[in-house]
From TrEMBL:
2Fe-2S ferredoxin-type domain boundaries: 232-317
A Pfam match: NAD_binding_1
Top-rank taxon: Bacteria
Protein name: Oxidoreductase
PANTHER family: CARNITINE MONOOXYGENASE REDUCTASE SUBUNIT (PTHR47354:SF1), NADH OXIDOREDUCTASE HCR (PTHR47354)
KW Flavoprotein (keyword) present: yes
Ranges where the FAD-binding FR-type domain occurs: 3-104
């Protein structure tokens, strides 16, 4: 079933750095907004049939959502449109915030590690931890100080007495040593990381001996290429359709071509919007949002990037 959407109006656009714009989005009719816990992302429907997910900078307090978007040179359309064509007063459709990067609000210590625009969900977490009066430290890496969005805001949050901010800029020859940060954290600490692929890979390596329930990360893009080998069938149990997935197409492409509605956003296996229950068959998992236990159980698939190892998949669609 397609997910219900609601209308948001662009109320403010602000230049945060040379390549980052922030957007304040509110209901044009002043309707209450769905709750957005720290770490959540908002899925926007943009012109050209684009759906994109953006991490929220706060919990939606004050009747508006705030997102920050970096202009990506290799943009697939989302950041390009927002940077070049979005205007104050325009309306967009959105889906209720989802949270695949949830903050543990009972942890005795929270270690936040951000690279570049990966600061967005971690800023929301720092704000929430301050409101709870819990201890946190944030380690923020960027190429240079002028490309470090929200640095002043983070310094103000740290000055409130609950957290500490540590910045690292390659232009100043100050580099983030993730392994050292992890070693210095307490055994009960929860660790969070968001940023480019290399940062996430280093974080995973540094935390491999930590209990998995205390290690949290969110990627911008999948590490693996999408499954487009094809050569299998997907039986859609609820709609009664049989979909043949040919070479060069993703499972999601084939489902949509068959006229079956399925929500999706990132098309890279990162956000989890298109997550679908597997009734039988063996998926070829290529995503970044399922846990290792979920992949081993084969009870769910992310069809925008994953395919099949068996000749047939039976899906709850």
């Amino acid at each position: 079933m397609p997910q219900e959407t609601f209308t948001l109006q662009i109320r403010q656009i602000r230049l945060e750095t040379d390549d980052v714009l922030s957007f304040e989005l509110a209901s044009p009719t002043q309707n209450p907004l769905p709750v957005a816990p720290a770490g959540a992302h908002l899925e926007l429907h943009l012109p050209g049939a684009l759906q994109r997910s953006y991490s929220l900078l706060d919990e939606g307090l004050g009747g508006c959502y705030r997102i920050a978007v970096k202009r990506e040179p290799q943009s697939r359309g989302g950041s390009a449109w927002l940077h070049s064509q979005a205007r104050v007063g325009q309306t967009l459709q959105a889906q209720a915030p989802r949270n695949d990067f949830a903050l543990n609000e009972h942890a005795p210590e929270s270690i936040l590690i951000a690279g570049g625009i990966g600061i967005t969900p971690l800023l929301a977490m720092a704000r929430r931890l301050n409101r709870l009066g819990h201890r946190w430290s944030l380690h923020y890496a960027a190429p240079s100080p002028d490309r470090m969005a929200y640095r002043d805001c983070l310094q103000a949050l740290a000055a409130d007495g609950h957290g500490s901010l540590h910045t690292y800029c390659s232009s100043e020859d100050r580099r983030l040593d993730i392994a050292a940060v992890v070693r210095a954290s307490g055994p009960q600490a929860h660790l969070y990381c968001c940023g480019p692929a290399g940062l996430i890979d280093d974080f995973i390596t540094a935390t491999q001996d930590r209990p998995p329930e205390r290690v949290h990360y969110e990627r911008f893009a999948a590490r693996h290429a999408a499954s487009t080998e094809g050569g299998y069938e997907a039986l859609l149990a609820r709609s009664g359709k049989t979909v043949k997935v040919s070479a060069g197409r993703t499972l999601l492409d084939a489902i949509l071509d068959a006229g079956v509605d399925i929500p999706y956003a990132c098309s890279q296996g990162v956000c989890g919007t298109c997550r679908t229950r597997v009734i039988s068959g063996t998926p070829d998992h290529r995503d970044e949002c399922l846990t290792e236990a979920e992949r081993q159980s084969n009870e769910a698939i992310i069809p925008c990037c994953s395919g099949a190892l068996s000749s047939t998949l039976v899906l709850d669609l």
